[in-house]
């Protein structure tokens, strides 16, 4: 029997059993267990992990554990550049395009509102999402821990918050998205680019109250929807402003 000592840091503790949080603990491992196998067996999706140290040395997810190993597991680093240490995955984690699972439609719309390419369809099956992540290098956003553990999914975030505005702020904070914001540049419905359009071109398509009150419009060439700066736009802008606040 192989026995190893583990210590998980910061938000990774949220995935652990309460008696294992924020301190070292020792547990038995299968003789051929890898770091990925044991980290996920303890409840932490591998997509949440950015750095693994075994006996002080940075290792990958495929490192086979030996008796007596001491394993330190860290989440994504925001304030410190740890690039020279990384062995967990071949490509950087912070690719700023996403796919959201069926339960995160509101978050998908808010990310599109902020200008982040986000695929979403409430009919997506888990196998489709896995294929999209593997094919496009997108970050999976989900509240399904088991989905994050699929081998082909190397980039992903478990969304802890339950309400949509808080979910957006959580993802902004964890992935340091503020610098990449391009508000209202993507269609909220289909994720295609928006472009400005003259009011005169769409007069017959506007409700009378909108024609009277607004002068600036955008349109999506894919789904043909028209957007203007009404009350819904102002509410979404306020949510985005909250997420952009420092600290």
Features:
247 residues; alpha/beta; Ubiquitin-like (UB roll); 3 domains; five-stranded mixed beta sheet; four-stranded parallel beta sheet; 8 helices; 12 strands; 27% helix
What do these coordinates show?
With 247 residues, the chain is of the alpha/beta class. The protein has three domains: 2-85, Ubiquitin-like (UB roll); 98-180; 194-244, no CATH class. Helix content is 27%, strand content 19%. It has helices at 35-41, 105-113, 126-136, 145-148, 164-175, 199-202, 208-213, 231-244; strands at residues 2-8, 25-29, 51-54, 57-59, 70-74, 98-100, 118-120, 139-142, 156-158, 194-197, 217-220, 226-228. A hairpin with a 5-residue loop joins β11 and β12. α2 crosses α5 (164-175). The termini are far apart. Mean pLDDT is 89; it is low at 78-82.
Please give the structural blueprint.
Blueprint lengths: L1 E7 L16 E5 L5 H7 L9 E4 L2 E3 L10 E5 L23 E3 L4 H9 L4 E3 L5 H11 L2 E4 L2 H4 L7 E3 L5 H12 L18 E4 L1 H4 L5 H6 L3 E4 L5 E3 L2 H14 L3
Parallel strand pairs: 1-5, 6-7, 6-8, 8-9
Antiparallel strand pairs: 1-2, 3-4, 3-5, 10-11, 11-12
What's this entry about, in short?
The chain is of the alpha/beta class. 27% of the residues lie in helices and 19% in strands.
